[in-house]
Amino acid sequence: MAEIRMGVVESRFADLIWAHEPLPSRELVKLCEKELSWNKSTTYTVLRKLCARGIFRNEGGMVSSVLSRSEFYAVQSEQFVEDTFEGSLPAFIAAFTQRKGISQDEADEIRRMIDAAAGKE
């Protein structure tokens, strides 16, 4: 998969698609004109870039996601941990909690998530 990161403006554009998908590309152009003050060529340029990254598709004039919003952020989070903490989730959690602790409820929820991921539930 190509570069999965998005800038702030691309993220706003992606949020529009995720909120309204599937939608005809002509409707996306109208939506971007209203919400982002973009012209048609800007909309199609950004759409092509995000399609090339494997996030969206534009088939037959219908725009939809390849990755859902939650899948996108999961991949982006994995990349962040890989790039910043050499893929070590424990190192990420240690860094995250070093300055800001977590509540008992958060700790319990994380334990449940770990147990489920490890197949204990």
Report on this model:
The chain is mainly alpha-helical. Helices cover 66% and strands 8% of the residues. It is built from 6 helices and 3 strands. A 3-stranded antiparallel β-sheet has the order 1-3-2. It starts with 7 loop residues before the first helix and ends with a helix. The model has no long low-confidence stretch (mean pLDDT 92).
Order of helix and strand elements from N to C terminus: HEHHEEHHH
Give the neighbour order of strands across the main sheet: 1-3-2
**Low-pLDDT segments, ≥5 res:** none
Mean pLDDT: 92
Distance between the termini: 32 Å
Q: Count of helical segments?
A: 6
What share of the residues lie within helices?
Answer: 55-70%
The dominant shape is elongated
Category by helix and strand content? mainly alpha
